[in-house]
């Protein structure tokens, strides 16, 4: 069944693409470049900066708390996005396996 083989290949390519996006999010969250040729853009994320980063700036404690809160929220969203992509990848794998089982079950065996 050529159509089934093409469908399986399309699902496999989609699954690989979803996996690649998930890997990109992990690299981004860990402070690594998302592309091989991209330069490094910092350490692990969220950075958990300290108030001394701003020197003698008044209210630096409040500013750094707000900054750390924003970074933590972004980090939480990156984790959630990666988990959703992982769920999609697993679902695509299950669909592909189900199509393969159905194809094998419907294939007439050669009696010879």
Q: Could you characterize what this model shows?
A:
By secondary structure, the chain is an all-alpha fold. The chain has two helices and no strands. Residues 36-41 have low confidence and may be disordered.
Gist of the model:
This protein has 112 residues and is mainly α. It has two helices and no strands.
In one word, what is the shape? rod-shaped
Radius of gyration: 23 Å
Structural class: mainly alpha
Number of DSSP-assigned strands: 0
Largest beta-sheet details: none
Could you spell the SSE succession in H and E letters? Answer: HH
**Regions with little confidence, pLDDT below 50 for 5+ residues:** 36-41
| Number of alpha- plus pi-helical segments | 2
First-last Cα distance:
20 Å
Strand content: under 5%
Average pLDDT works out at: 75
Question: Could you estimate the helical fraction of the residues in percent?
Answer: 55-70%
């Amino acid at each position: 069944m050529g159509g089934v083989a093409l469908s399986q290949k399309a699902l496999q390519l989609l699954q690989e693409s979803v996996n690649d996006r998930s890997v990109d999010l992990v690299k981004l969250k860990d402070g690594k470049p998302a592309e091989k040729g991209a330069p490094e853009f910092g350490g692990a994320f969220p950075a958990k900066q300290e108030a001394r980063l701003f020197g003698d700036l008044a209210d630096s404690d409040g500013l750094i708390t707000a900054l750390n809160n924003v970074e933590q929220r972004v980090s939480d969203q990156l984790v959630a996005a990666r988990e959703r992509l992982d769920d999609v990848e697993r679902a695509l794998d299950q669909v592909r396996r189900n199509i393969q089982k159905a194809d094998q079950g419907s294939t007439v065996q050669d009696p010879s």
